[in-house]
Amino acid sequence: MRASPQRVSPWIGSLTALITLSLLTGCKPVGPDYSKPGYTAPATYKETGAPTVLVPPPAPDGGGSWQTASPSDGMLRGKWWEVYNDPQLNKLEERIATNNQSLRSAYETYLAARDQVASARSQFYPTLSAGPSFTHEKTSSNRPLATNQTPTNYNDLQLTGQASWEPDFWGRIRRTVEAARDNAQASAADMANVNLSLEADMAQDYFELRGLDSQIKLLTATVADLERQLDLATRRLKGGVATQVDVEQAQTQLETVRAQLVDVGVARAQFEHAVGTIAEINLPDFSIPFSPLDLPLPKVPVGVPSQLLERRPDIAAAERRTAALNAQIGVAVSAFYPTITLGGTGGFESTHGGTWLQGPSALWSLGGQAAQLLFDAGQRHALSDQARHNYEAQAANYKVAIFAAFQNVEDNLSALRILDQEAAVEQRAVESAQRSLNLSNQRYKGGATSYLEVLTAETTLISNQRTLTDLESRQFAASVQLIRSLGGGWDTSQLPK
């Protein structure tokens, strides 16, 4: 049997309205689509002359630029600290991911940003609510227009539900979700940056401590040598071939170096405490065994400059925040368009429980509302202009982060190159000072000179040896900072989608 037009037309109209709304909500959202701010990276790094820097091979065409086969070539990956081949450092670094509270704080901040994405997405769907209500009412018999047939004492039983939906005609919700997602990715990059900073600080403090152990080893050996010098001066005094001045000078030099040895212990303890704190180890139970810095300095692969934009988490965070603020422009522009809300109510209402859920007690209503703001004294224009200015400011901050990153890399590349040159010169100075001391000792033993010459040569040697040891520590520190400035083992593929 064919349905009557009177019964079919309401359903056809409702279906048509829903299809129309779906098409409208699928329209392109207002506001500009995001395009990453442009930046052209240099073809090569300026400073690549250090022997501990591993640069990519030249391009096959023999040109002056560098290239790699794929974005991952020539890059440190994952646990970058393992390049130093130090088991003790590896154990300490592993603790950061599971124990450090600063990293935990950054992780919880990221989770909160991720929840904001889910909150924004919920606006795509209607809100539904339902619930029963019971009211017993007694009205006045003397109220206006009251009749004897009008009840004055009755129950009102209701079981109703409400639905409300604001279709995303202009893309306000889509832009809001886009901004929330971009901010969540920025928060994830912030977390990666905190992690990288902690890992680099751990490695640097650890190598500083081992460098101080090298100083302790040097000063301990020097103390032993000076004790022999003091014994020689004392025996020569007893033999009548030296003076009390020689003995006192030897004693003074010995005590001076002993004081330096004690002083190094202060700095070592502080670095040990710093390492233990980053690793979240109970300090009274933590100590690092004596371990002079005798590791070979590894080669650090630097990749090509264009990779830096994808490897630095701080650059990624700045770029994602730029995208989020671009989406906020669309949110601001959507305020110029009407707000359309659809709503409906349905349920049952009766004065008696026996007829409450029966067909005649049913009720429903459907409706829609459109509102257009006509005058706001320029507020929407101001807010949209503000959104555009915020975007431009963040786009500038993104480029500032890029410039700072390239400066970090160049600074540490030059530091490694210059420190390598300085260490080579200082090594020759140590060798020369050692020969000078040997000659002075021979002259002193042969009675050809006073102990003052030996003292001067000894002081010069100690100074140069400590400088060389300090240069070795600085080379490791610069190596760690170079890895940090390159982004460690991170890249943007690790950002959540």
CATH class: Mainly Alpha
Mean pLDDT level: 88
C-alpha geometry = elongated
What is the percentage of strand-forming residues?
5-15%
CATH architecture: Up-down Bundle
Structural class by secondary-structure content: alpha+beta
What is the terminal separation in angstroms?
54 Å
* The number of domains: 1
CATH superfamily: Outer membrane efflux proteins (OEP)
Q: What is the share of helical residues?
A: 55-70%
Major sheet attributes = 4 strands, antiparallel
Please give the radius of gyration in angstroms: 39 Å
* Main sheet strand line-up: 2-3-5-6
**Low-pLDDT regions:** 1-12, 61-73
**How many alpha or pi helices?**
9
Annotation, overall tally of beta strands: 6
Report the order of strands and helices: HEHHEEHHEHHEEHH
* CATH topology value: Outer membrane efflux proteins (OEP)
How would you portray this structure in words?
- The protein has 497 residues and is of the alpha+beta class.
- It has one domain (21-125, 169-339, 379-494): Up-down Bundle (Outer membrane efflux proteins (OEP)).
- The protein contains nine helices and six strands; from the N terminus they run αβααββααβααββαα.
- It has helices at residues 5-25, 87-99, 101-121, 172-238, 244-278, 308-311, 313-333, 379-445, 451-485; strands at 53-54, 127-138, 153-165, 300-301, 339-350, 362-371.
- The chain has a four-stranded antiparallel β-sheet, with no helix packed on it. A two-stranded parallel sheet has the order 1-4.
- The longest helix is centred in the middle third of the chain and has 67 residues, at 172-238.
- The chain is elongated.
- Residues 1-12 and 61-73 have low confidence and may be disordered.
